Q: What sequence folds into this?
């Protein structure tokens, strides 16, 4: 009898150590069942890469744009941990997973950004669904909750941290003679993840760090520009600048791809961009 | 006797006519029909299984190879230049997601990567590459991000080869991006 009780007490600890009860992955990020296994595996390995990155020659100006006190594997890990809690797949439909908690909710502060959703795309690369649903609720005074990974999450902040990934994340970074598990392609995907993580920040008119409409240049007329020096595009550009240096053993084509991605992100910054408060907005 | 004189004059006349004949074209035709490999056979006998190079006195093999490589590289630069993504190509992009880096931009990494590899192995090609980068950085039909990477490469490779490019004008809006891009070590 005593043996049986002993086994019953010890079993949960053993199972726990095997990971059966541990649904949180690296940086406590939970993958929804809508994420295909192959994508989940690649992205988990991408996240693991962060721990092995070494950075040097980071200027105070770089840190100002990244909006972090230091650039290290530790600080980047914590950055993601605070901004990404769930990753959902391309088949995840926020409209069907959404429940109205309050249909006449008084958001405070009720200041709205000039916002056009940059998230309706033909090919999903990555979107910050949590922030997007929060802003949609704020715009219509409705408080929502979302069913994610067998949980019901109250969408009461841009920091709710629900990120949607799609096939585009893996196909858009395709490079000839470079596998999807190469360091360069992992760093390109991670830069996108950090970009989306920044959409979890901001408050008031800048809640979610929305993209601004390009009034000139290559993307004129599209919501594909940046008016914040510490916004998603500039954060991405600065990280890619340092990922380039950290991309040891990368070949010239891979390094050029990182440089091109950094260039694209940096080209989105509009004249007169300023640094904005990145503190996230919460209600209730 | 008379007949002999006439025969001799006729022979000499015929000989004179023969000496004024048009040049024989047969050897030239033979040269044109040569296999392309024959040239390699003459220039690099070792590759064609011939060990003896003593008959090649006067031919500077290394020089010819260098010139060949340069010509090939120039040809690559010319064909790659016209394939660099333009603003028009981006607006017609199949992906249509202008929120993310256009796939055409990332695909260009093949060109920049190839050029960098060539310059690392043969610095003599640097001037040709700098011309390519200069033209690309100044071309307003190309995507801004591509132009900025060209400008970054122009600056970095010129510095490495100690070539003065102070007279080259890089537009301000391109320079603003260039300063963000990682420098080549």
A:
């Amino acid at each position: 009898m005593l043996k049986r009780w002993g086994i019953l007490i010890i079993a949960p600890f053993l199972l726990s150590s095997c990971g059966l009860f541990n649904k949180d992955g690296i940086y406590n990020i939970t993958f929804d069942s809508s994420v295909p296994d192959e994508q989940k595996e690649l992205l988990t390995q991408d996240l693991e890469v962060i721990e092995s990155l070494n950075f040097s020659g980071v200027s105070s100006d770089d840190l100002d744009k990244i909006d972090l006190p230091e650039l290290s594997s530790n600080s980047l890990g914590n950055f993601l941990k605070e901004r990404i809690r769930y990753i959902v797949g391309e088949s995840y439909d926020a409209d069907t997973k959404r429940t109205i908690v309050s249909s006449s909710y008084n958001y405070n502060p009720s200041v709205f950004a000039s916002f056009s959703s940059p998230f309706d795309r033909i090919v999903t690369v990555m979107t910050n669904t949590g922030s997007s649903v929060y802003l949609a609720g704020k715009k219509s005074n409705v408080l929502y909750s979302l069913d994610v990974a067998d949980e019901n999450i109250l969408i009461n902040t841009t920091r709710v941290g629900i990120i949607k990934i799609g096939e585009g994340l893996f196909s858009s970074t395709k490079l000839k003679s470079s596998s999807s598990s190469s360091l360069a392609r992992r760093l390109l995907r991670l830069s996108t993840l950090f970009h989306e993580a920044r959409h979890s920040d901001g408050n008031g008119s800048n809640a979610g760090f929305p993209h601004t409409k390009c009034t000139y240049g290559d993307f004129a007329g599209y919501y594909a520009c940046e008016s914040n020096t510490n916004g998603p595009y500039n954060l991405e550009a600065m990280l890619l600048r340092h990922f380039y240096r950290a991309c040891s053993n990368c070949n010239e084509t891979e390094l050029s791809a990182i440089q091109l991605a950094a260039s694209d992100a940096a080209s989105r910054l509009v004249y007169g961009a300023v640094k904005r408060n990145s503190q996230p907005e919460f209600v209730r | 006797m008379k007949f002999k004189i006439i025969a001799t004059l006729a022979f000499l006349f015929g000989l004179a006519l023969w000496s004024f004949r048009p040049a024989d074209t047969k050897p030239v035709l033979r040269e044109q029909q040569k296999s392309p490999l024959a040239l390699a056979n003459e220039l690099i006998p070792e590759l064609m299984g011939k060990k003896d190079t003593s008959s090649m006195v006067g031919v500077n093999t290394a020089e010819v190879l260098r010139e060949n490589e340069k010509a090939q590289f120039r040809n690559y630069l010319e064909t790659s230049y016209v394939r660099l993504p333009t603003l028009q190509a981006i607006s017609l992009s199949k992906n249509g997601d202008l929120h993310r880096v256009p796939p055409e931009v990332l695909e260009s990494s093949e060109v920049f990567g190839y050029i960098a590899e060539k310059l690392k192995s043969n610095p003599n090609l640097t001037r040709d590459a700098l011309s390519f980068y200069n033209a690309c950085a100044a071309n307003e039909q190309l995507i801004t991000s591509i132009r900025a990477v060209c400008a970054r490469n122009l600056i970095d490779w010129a510095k490495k080869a100690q070539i003065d490019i102070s007279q080259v004008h890089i537009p301000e809006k391109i320079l603003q991006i260039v300063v963000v891009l990682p420098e080549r070590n």
Chain B has one domain: 2-178.
